Prior knowledge:
By secondary structure, the protein is of the alpha+beta class. It has a domain at about 20-145: Beta-clip-like, CATH 2.170.270.10. The protein contains 2 helices and 12 strands. The protein has a 3-stranded antiparallel β-sheet, with no helix packed on it. The protein is globular.
Amino acid sequence: MSLVAKIIQKIKLWIASTKPSPRDVSNTRPLFANNRFYPEEIPYREDEPSAAKFEIVHHNQYGDGVVSKIRFQAEQVLFRFSGNELPYQTLFTLQKKPGLYIEDPYFMGKILHSCNPNARVDMDRQVFIAIRAIDAGEYITMDYETTEDILFRQFVCECGSPKCRGLISGRSYRRISEDWR
Length: 181
C-alpha cells in the first residue's frame, strides 16, 4: 500500500471514530477559562450557566444543544444569559423587542426549539425558566415563536410533539396563518 493510501485510510478511520451518535455526551463542547461557557471579556453574572448544571452536546440532526446535568423544578430559573445587543438578527439572537436582539453564540443561542418546550424566556430579565420539571439528561428547549416576530431562518420542526406546528417561521407568520383558519 502506498504512503498516500495509508494516510487516506488513517484519515477515514479517524473521521469514522469521531462521528457522534444522535445523543453522544462524549462529544460535548469545550468551555472557556474557569469552566465558563462565556469568554473572559463577558463579565460574570450571577445565575449564568455553569458546567455543573449544563453541557453543550452535538446532536446529528439538530446541531448543538444544551443538556441539563441536574434536575430542575417547575418555575425554577435555569440560567441568566449574556450577550451583545444588536439592531439586527443572527442565528444566535433572541428578539428583545422589534429591532433589538440579544446575541449569545456561546450558550443561549444553542437552546433547541420544541413546540412543547420545557423552558420559557423572560427577555427583560434575560433568564430561562423551567415550565415543568426537567430531568438530568434532557435537552433544554424553548418555542422560538414566543420571542421572534420573524425567524432568522425558518425551518420544518421535527420535535415529535403532538402539538408540533410544522413550519416554524415566527409569531408574525403564525398570527397570519391563524387568521386564515
